[in-house]
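Bench log, entry 3. Co-assembly request; chain sequences pasted below exactly as received.
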Amino acid sequence: MGYIYSLPMIFTAIGAVLCLSRSMYFEEFVSVISALATVVVTGTVVFLPDFSNGFLYIDGLSKIMLIMISAIYTSTVIFSTTYMKYIENPLFEKNFYYFLMNLFAFTMFFTVSVNNFGLMWVGVEATTVTSALLVATENNESSMEATWRYIIIVSSGLIISLLSNVFIYSATHTLSLSMLMSMKVTNAGKILTLGSMMAIVGYGTKAGIFPMHTWLPDVHGKAPAPVSAIFSGVLLPVALYVMARILQIVPVESVRIFSFALGFLTVLIAAVLMVAQGHYKRLFAYSTMENMGMALIGLSLGKYAFIGAIILLISHAFAKSSAFFLTGNVLAKYKSHKMTDVKGISKRMPFTAYTLMFSSMAVTGTPPFGTFIGEFMIIYGMLLNFPLFYTLTLVGFLALAFIAVNFKIGKMIFSESDGEMMERKRVGRIVPMVNTSLAFLVVFLIPQIQEILSKGMIR
Amino acid sequence: MEKFFALIGFFEILLVLFMQWEVYTKKIITTFSIASYTIAVFLFYLGIMENKYLVVILAVLTAGVRGFFIPWFMKKRIVRDPWREREIKPTISTALSILISLSVVIFAYVLYRITFYDSVHLSDGSIPIALILQGVFLMISRRNAFIQLIGYMMMENAIFLFEGYLFPALPFIVEAGVILDLIGIIAIAGIVVKMMKNSTTDSNEFDELKG
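Structure output for the full assembly:
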């Protein structure tokens, strides 16, 4: 039975290899098929019991991550099929783009499926290897610079988590996730506590958590829209997944408070920086940072807040990928990253405009989207654990982020423009609309999400 | 074994101090290669003494990948692009680099005694910390992409030395995965460095990487 849990990895690996063939449209066909196959498999595993062996560890949390990755990977691949033509001077051939995209998905599936912290590190670092060139697809000096910053900053941050693996091993004599989960550490020693905190900082680099977040706006701003979408939607949550595992195996107060503090600071800093942004892709990048900060707060608080964090991550993945796809549509037609150059989208690209409006509302936690429910549960968890002042401060900065994003995007959408209609057709419109709708529909799946997290499967 | 570890660690610190003061990229790469071979020798000796064949394999991998392949790959790139051979404008002057890098060694010792010493009973446990901090300093003090990469790899080398000595039983698959990732990072970095020179110039676009 265990083989079914490996299928997402197998499909993406086969997809990657087949993409090396240079037949016309073959790479697109193969990538879409392998992505859809992963959706079918991950949709099936939620009805199957938890599984663990020497290599794999699949529980409710892993299953939710598998579904998220497959869904965003699929929408990204489908969106890419019509978007790539807008990249004027790509760094490589189209088949190599899909080859990297499939390998990238493979590394993410690998990270959330393996039963070993050391291999999780290998998986997270491998996501950097497979995705770095995707960031540089547009092949200009600034995208190269962003790629370089990505490689150096993220790899250096991950060195801290590599060291944390050594510390965890020295304290527990194992890196096996299943063994560590069964240990139930309640009184961690100095080394294990320190190792856990280092893991939070190290993997936090990849998740865009303060203080190692500086690569994130550069990369999201300069990568092509589908790459920004998959980064924001699932790559960052994959790093948060490892942090969630750390918090599960070392549920001690000091580690939780440390994680909470980093999450809190991330939200504050991202909200302030959002106000100053003049480029729409960077604005959404900081919004991602804010959401990851909120999710980390939820993971650190546990119980309802933990479920809230997962709901937030799922809904955010759909909403933010949609927002980035739409920024791709805008960039393809307006040819500028600056907000001041983009006017009257509602008149020139009405479908893109209204979907962008809804996705912006979704990423800022507006009801009725799933992000609102997720943030509400996290804030409720915070109220139970901390004095009211902290909660009010956080809510104040969330409101600031809400105003910054929706005001700026609203201005782009509803300002006056005399230009002619230039809406994108079919795939460029449908994929973002579907993802924005899913960000809302997550609300109806909350009981199932809770069941998967608590019982490991839907009965 | 502890004396051998201290000797190797001391030698590694000398090598990394030399890197801090050197401006020729090729010499820095050669020094990194020597540092990696030294760690491989240590791991080989450790594997033989403790009868752990996986540590011996790890030593061979370390020598092959970090000692030979990566320096060879980097030097090949430098031969193609002679402009990379010398760091023209280091962020920090050589004199200040000497001062800071020596201070980093002292700081690492103090840090180790205050924090880890109670838990990790190793008389020369500050060596890996000093090496990691030196790697960080090398990265932030240089503009040359290859030297920044060497700073990153020095940090990894320090962790290899540390875990190889303290926990030779650490799962081999993890160590092998780390080495595999390193090859990937270097290969990708090599492509990016090459493309940085060839890509379309648009100075206005750099405004977007601010704030």
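The mean pLDDT of chain B is 80. Chain B has one domain: 2-192.
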